Amino acid sequence: MPEPGGPATTIAIISGRGALPRRVAETRAALDLPTYLVIFPDCFEDWMSDFPHGFHEFERLGRLFRELKDRGVTHVLFAGAMNRPKIRLWRLDLKTLTVAVKAIGLLRKGDDAMLRGYAQMIEAEGFQMVGAHEILGEDLTLPRGILGRHGPDEAAKADAVRAHGIVAALGPHDVGQGAVVAGGLCLAVEAIEGTDLMLMRVGDLPPERRASAPPPSGVLFKGPKPGQDRRLDTPTIGPETVRGAASAGLRGIVAIAGETVLIEPDETRIAADNANLFVYGATHDELAAWS
């Protein structure tokens, strides 16, 4: 990106729910760099009122692209969780009609394939896609090693290795960035619901389903799918992830160091310490050595 030292780049953040879009917007604001929030239905949160923003519809891509160009936007970023839309055909504008077949087809694909397709449509309009990690900087990703007081023992390392292998194996099928394993047993794989709801599912498992690995046990693994475009969907953890892991009866979290955005590091560390959970940033080579 042509910053710093050059002219300020105006970035549009297609803002979903969660802490990541706010983190990106606040990082830009701290540097006095221009940012515009694109808010689709059911994605508005109170903090968004503090930034230039506009409410848009999936069926009105023509209006969206015109506004971005009028505002001098050159780069576009996806951040945060967002439900797949139900396209209302009667609301389609002319621009959306020209790509309607492709856009509707993308909704039937996995998350990564869908986002790649929408990114290509955005780039075809002359905008450049960027990733959250490019704004936040690699120093704001999860560092290697223990975050807080607690670390994984050998049983937790074995669970992390298995969960990492599950995510790697499912990557070609465009499924999830996370998995939960306890005592070698896969309790959940992250699908379209996202990490928080996956952890709620684990927490709701009946005791007999975890008889061989009763709480507290098990590990949440988070990391990018093999070949994933990090500009479009960056693995993210934060204090809510820790609280979700605790409610699910897990021992801790292992995520890929340097490739996972860490939201609110101090709050995440405190939440982990208070819950007696570990948060550990591992490299792929380290996970291979654990196996």
What would the average pLDDT be, to the nearest integer? 85
H-E order: EHEEHEHHHEHEHEEHEEHEEHEH
Termini distance? 39 Å
**Structural class by secondary-structure content:** alpha/beta
Q: Could you give the order of strands across the largest sheet?
A: 6-13-11-9-7-8
Low-confidence stretches are 2-7
Let me know the number of strands.
13
Q: What kind of sheet is the major sheet?
A: 6 strands, mixed
- Radius of gyration from the alpha-carbon trace, in angstroms: 20 Å
Instruction: Specify the number of helices.
Output: 11
Q: DSSP strand (E) fraction?
A: 15-25%
Shape call = elongated
Helix-residue proportion: 25-40%
Summary, kept brief:
This protein is α/β, with parallel strands linked by helices and 291 residues long. Helix content is 36%, strand content 19%.
Task: Give structural attributes.
291 residues; alpha/beta; five-stranded parallel beta sheet
